[in-house]
Amino acid sequence: MKNFLEINADLHMHGLYSGAVSSRMTPSTIAEQAPLKGLQLLGTADILHRKWINLVKEQLSQGEDEAILEHKNGTKFLLQTEVEDSNRIHHIIFIPSFSKVEELREKFKTKCKNLDSDGRPKIWLNSEELAEACIESGCMLGFAHAFTPYFGILAKYDSYKDAYKSQASNIHFLELGLSADTNMADRILELHNLTFLSNSDAHSPWPNKLGREFNTLKLKEISWQELKRAIQRKDSRGCILNVGFNPLEGRYHKTRCRGCLTFFEPKEASELGWRCPKCKNIIKKGVDFRIEELADLPLGKHPSHRPPYKHIIPLSEIIALAIGIKNSWSQKVQDLWQQYVNKFGSEIKVLLETDLKELSELSPKIAEYISYFRNEKIKYVPGGAGVYGSLLKPGEKAEDKIKKFKQTQKSLTEF
Ligand SMILES: [Zn+2]
Ligand SMILES: [Zn+2]
């Protein structure tokens, strides 16, 4: 009998043929960066795209399990893509083999104009038809960044079942997205049956993006059958930890004007017809408010299978904050980052596992900030309207950093 493995998996990202993606986003660069972050399994990204398929086959090798590929450094990949349906909803698909990849390409050929020009293709099928086509081909399908405006299923529908209709019972997972976490999503009762995944949706391979959200999966080996059991929570397999942004950092967390970035109370925004009185631009509904609209429960009720959710901050951002440098890409920050990863094995180990005493051997100041982070003492300017939230230095107040529609309003100060 094999023992259980616990692996860190990031199952949604994009390759260089998707829009706004770094040209360095190749399978081998992803594979080289993964162990520095502490990830053992990644999604292949964009696997319906012909040139990307060729690159994946060139840079990774196929093993016994047809769904899994491996880089020479041991990093594994699961055949995966994201697609957009005819209602502009995004779905994540896991595929059991390259022959099924070809089967899907064949099915989508007449329903898609950009299969070979965009890594994330637009398929002219609705959610139900798309799910049916994928499930019939033996794939797993779930919805991406569930609540985000524009492309999240629950931004458009009050129930995911209204979108998937006859296929709803075949949906076993959702992806939380950067603007939501388990505490928020479990306020909606119909989601209690689903496994929550937290993935990066990374567009560049560097460790502040790759694995900025990830899942710890418990399974016997990295194989299609074991991953399927983990996602369906069968035979003691499952997702045992979700790790990701504090939702405040997400780009769509709060209700905010797209033009002048003023924050609004959702009630105010609604009274104003979702138009900003200052700059006339559109006010974008925040994910926190969308969940409030859909919620059946107050915070804090989870089904018994739900794993904990840990908030994470990229190590480079903690280092930058600790040494008082604004830009986490500066050489000084990157050098320190490298020292930590070399000494302690991976970014995830530094952030979540290594003893603080050991961390302070390199720098007591940085260790102190890692401790702030672990104790959730770091505060944020929240994100909204497509702009990420940002970290505050200790002592800094969010109120001093944000523009609110009415400075007297109360609930926005409770960040
Ligand atoms: Zn998407
Ligand atoms: Zn405005």
Your description of this structure?
The chain folds into two domains: 244 residues, TIM Barrel (Alpha-Beta Barrel); 61 residues, no CATH class. Helix content is 31%, strand content 15%. The protein contains 16 helices and 17 strands. It has an eight-stranded mixed β-sheet. Strands 6-7-8 form a three-stranded antiparallel β-sheet, with helices on one face. Helix 1 links the parallel strand 1 and strand 2. It starts with a strand and ends in a 14-residue tail after the last helix.
Q: What are the SSEs and their pairings?
A:
Blueprint: E1 5-10, H1 27-37, E2 41-43, H2 50-59, E3 61-62, E4 68-70, E5 76-78, E6 80-84, E7 90-94, H3 98-108, H4 127-136, E8 140-143, H5 153-156, H6 160-164, E9 173-175, H7 182-185, E10 195-197, E11 214-219, H8 224-232, E12 238-244, E13 256-257, H9 266-271, E14 283-284, H10 287-294, E15 309-311, H11 315-323, H12 331-344, H13 347-353, H14 356-360, H15 364-374, E16 380-381, E17 390-391, H16 398-401
Parallel strand pairs: 1-2, 2-5, 9-10, 12-15
Antiparallel strand pairs: 1-11, 3-4, 4-5, 6-7, 7-8, 11-12, 13-14, 16-17
Helix pairs in contact: 11-12, 11-15
Bound molecules: zinc ion (2 copies).
